[in-house]
Amino acid sequence: MKRVDPVTRFLAWCGAVFIAAPCLAIVVKVPWSQFFSELSSDGSLTAIWLTLWTSLGALVLCAVFGIPLAWWLSRSDGRTTSLIRPVVLAPIALPPTVAGLALLGLLDRHGLIGQWIYRSLHWQLPFTTYAVIVAGVFVGMPFLVLITESHFRQLPTEIEDAARIDKASNFQIFRLVALPQARSGVITGVVLAWARVLGEFGATMMFAGSLPGSTQTWTMQIYQELDINPGSAYSLSVLLVAIAMSIIFTLRKPLQSAFRS
Fold it and tell me: Within a 13 Å sphere around the CA of 139, how many CA atoms are in the beta-carbon half?
């Protein structure tokens, strides 16, 4: 049986309370008698629906590009990948406003790529619904890559070697050998990426704005309602807290496996 000394136990409890207390405060502040009416208001329903479909769209793009990227990083030890990996994972540590500014610098009408799009099509990506999806991909994909690469690296190489002996191509090994073996890790990465996209605020605010019905997501609706109708803000917030806790509880074992040395 593992034992913890009293001082460490006390500090651990302080840390746990520090994290749990704000979440509990949200639960207490919710006007439960009006909970469903607050969630069913037009503005709230629109923001929730917009967030759900844009986050799922971003998740598809994260999976399409992020899973192959994770496989490549896990099987390449060259100088190129050692330089690319920190760049790919950088959005995890970037302040959200900096992430949004980076997207503007690339894709607005004066951006590195956006200027050519604007000159050709007289259309710009920022402050559209598509910008919400792009911002979600930028902040969510690094989480998928981080978790999925970790699982790919833990796979035994014997099956891959046997497949190569049987003349399997590298793509066949990735599709038919690696993906089935790392299925739980890929699912974990996908769900964590979705959770990150679902709660995104800063980068989306900078890059897409907060236009009702177009770019005003769930978290932005909370921010707006805090001044107008705090009860609605707390109701929307507690639902996000419940989703976040459900995700972490469901993935607790895969997460432990992913970060096990």
Answer: 30
Averaged pLDDT for residues 127-154: 94
Helix axes 183-198, 230-250, angle to 10 degrees: 170
Per-position DSSP letters for 146-164, written without gaps between them? HHHHHHHHHS-SHHHHHHH
Report residue 231 as tokens. Answer: 């009860």
Q: Which domain holds residue 55?
A: 35-258
d(CA 49, CA 53): 6
Determine contact, residues 107/54, Cβ cutoff 8 Å: no
Residue 101 lies in a domain: yes
117-131 tens-digit pLDDT = 999 998 999 999 999
Instruction: Specify if 5 maps to a domain.
Output: no
Query: Residue 92's pLDDT is what?
Result: 93
**Angle at CA 34, nearest 5°, toward 222 and 198?**
30
State pTM to two decimals: 0.89
Q: Which domain CATH number covers 114? A: 1.10.3720.10
